[in-house]
């Protein structure tokens, strides 16, 4: 791994393409998701620049991007840029912020967007509509992150398990070639990106799984392994999953058998700690993506006339948390 001090943010951005076929990738946010995948790609020699805010830029300049992972640690000097210096000239822009920061993130990347694929890696679905409205549906790909990561207080990315899945796929025929080229470039990062030809199916399945996980973990303030040890914990978790899957099915994305079996097993496994990133955010008193995940699923359930008692309870619980947080 390369280690050292990168150039100051203002000086660190290269002008348009270097002509060697390497794709120029801008990553919005060097938190858990952006930092992990962008960091892995940068460590492997990819042309990655992080669009960050001043505090994170200073941290990255001082320490480089630090990854602590059971799959191998890394400390990588990375290029950063502040929003006031952003210009066009990117092949892809990976959006890796929380949903509540999306509007601001859109304004930050807007000058970089002409000609670039917009590659969101947020959980949920509703961000696709927001990004389509901002950049045009032909620019915005689908994406799923299958990983558990968190940014620690010192600015290091903590990878919490050996899982590191990254799925991308075209949502529009006009994107297909460029998405395939981006996938090939991401392979350099060593995290095994998967190119999906059914990305909306993948996104719906992840949405249903995550909404169940976040909903039940936050409601019970515990991981699914603890919940599943109680008298009704596993049954309640699977009931919530059924509601989310009914919403997905109504939207035209019934779950595939393999997903269903694996998800049921994972959500009721008592052998190893497992919790949603939303529970970690809540336990440290931070903001949560309640509206984007649980609220959105509930709105869709209501619109479809589906019974959703547990989903309503989970969302009410998160809204109470947010109200008390102030
Ligand atoms: N963490 C996980 O395990 C997983 C997360 N996800 C999803 O990925 C998405 C991102 O989550 P995660 O990486 O955990 O979140 P983090 O909070 O760790 O990282 C988000 C980063 O985005 C940065 N950011 C936000 N707005 C801007 C902006 N305008 N300009 C520059 N930087 C900005 C924040 O910067 P700053 O530090 O300055 O606030 C922050 O560092 C979420 O939708 C989440 O649900 C999906 C799978 C797993
Ligand atoms: C469930 C998990 C870890 C899968 O990637 C996730 O997306 C999250 O906790 O936000």
TrEMBL record:
<dbReference type="InterPro" id="IPR036291">
    <property type="entry name" value="NAD(P)-bd_dom_sf"/>
</dbReference>
<feature type="domain" description="Ketopantoate reductase C-terminal">
    <location>
        <begin position="199"/>
        <end position="322"/>
    </location>
</feature>
<comment type="similarity">
    <text>Belongs to the ketopantoate reductase family.</text>
</comment>
<dbReference type="InterPro" id="IPR013752">
    <property type="entry name" value="KPA_reductase"/>
</dbReference>
<dbReference type="Pfam" id="PF08546">
    <property type="entry name" value="ApbA_C"/>
</dbReference>
<protein>
    <recommendedName>
        <fullName>2-dehydropantoate 2-reductase</fullName>
        <ecNumber>1.1.1.169</ecNumber>
    </recommendedName>
</protein>
<dbReference type="InterPro" id="IPR051402">
    <property type="entry name" value="KPR-Related"/>
</dbReference>
<dbReference type="InterPro" id="IPR013332">
    <property type="entry name" value="KPR_N"/>
</dbReference>
<comment type="pathway">
    <text>Cofactor biosynthesis; (R)-pantothenate biosynthesis; (R)-pantoate from 3-methyl-2-oxobutanoate: step 2/2.</text>
</comment>
<dbReference type="InterPro" id="IPR013328">
    <property type="entry name" value="6PGD_dom2"/>
</dbReference>
<comment type="function">
    <text>Catalyzes the NADPH-dependent reduction of ketopantoate into pantoic acid.</text>
</comment>
<dbReference type="InterPro" id="IPR003710">
    <property type="entry name" value="ApbA"/>
</dbReference>
<dbReference type="InterPro" id="IPR008927">
    <property type="entry name" value="6-PGluconate_DH-like_C_sf"/>
</dbReference>
<dbReference type="GO" id="GO:0005737">
    <property type="term" value="C:cytoplasm"/>
</dbReference>
<dbReference type="GO" id="GO:0015940">
    <property type="term" value="P:pantothenate biosynthetic process"/>
</dbReference>
<keyword id="KW-0521">NADP</keyword>
<dbReference type="GO" id="GO:0008677">
    <property type="term" value="F:2-dehydropantoate 2-reductase activity"/>
</dbReference>
<keyword id="KW-0566">Pantothenate biosynthesis</keyword>
<dbReference type="Pfam" id="PF02558">
    <property type="entry name" value="ApbA"/>
</dbReference>
<feature type="domain" description="Ketopantoate reductase N-terminal">
    <location>
        <begin position="25"/>
        <end position="170"/>
    </location>
</feature>
<keyword id="KW-0560">Oxidoreductase</keyword>
């Amino acid at each position: 791994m390369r280690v050292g001090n990168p150039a100051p943010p203002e000086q660190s951005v290269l002008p348009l393409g270097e002509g060697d076929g390497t794709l120029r990738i801008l990553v919005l946010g060097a938190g858990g998701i952006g930092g992990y995948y962008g960091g892995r790609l940068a460590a492997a020699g990819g042309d990655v620049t992080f669009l960050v805010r001043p505090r994170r830029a200073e941290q990255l300049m001082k320490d480089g991007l630090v990854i602590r992972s059971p799959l191998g640690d890394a400390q990588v000097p990375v290029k950063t840029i502040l929003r006031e210096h952003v210009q066009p000239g990117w092949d892809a822009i990976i959006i890796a912020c929380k949903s509540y920061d999306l509007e601001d993130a859109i304004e930050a990347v807007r000058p970089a967007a002409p000609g670039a694929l917009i590659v969101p890696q947020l959980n949920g679905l509703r961000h696709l509509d927001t990004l389509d409205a901002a950049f045009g549906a032909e620019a915005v790909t689908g994406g799923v992150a299958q990983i558990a990561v968190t940014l620690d207080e010192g600015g290091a990315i903590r990878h919490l398990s050996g899982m590191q899945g990254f799925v991308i796929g075209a949502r529009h025929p006009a994107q297909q070639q460029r998405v395939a080229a981006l996938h090939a470039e991401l392979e350099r990062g060593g995290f095994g990106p998967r190119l999906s030809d059914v990305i909306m199916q993948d996104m719906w399945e992840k949405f249903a799984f995550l909404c169940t996980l976040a909903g039940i973990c936050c409601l019970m303030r515990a991981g699914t392994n603890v919940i599943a040890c109680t008298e009704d914990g596993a049954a309640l978790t699977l009931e919530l999953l059924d509601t989310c899957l009914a919403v997905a099915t109504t939207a035209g994305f019934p779950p595939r058998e393999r997903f269903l079996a694996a998800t049921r097993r994972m959500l009721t496994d008592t052998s190893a700690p497992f919790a949603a990133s939303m529970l970690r955010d809540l336990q440290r008193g931070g903001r949560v993506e309640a509206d984007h995940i649980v609220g959105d699923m509930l709105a869709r359930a209501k619109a479809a006339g589906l019974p959703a008692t547990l989903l309503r309870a989970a969302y009410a619980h998160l809204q109470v948390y947010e109200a008390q947080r102030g």
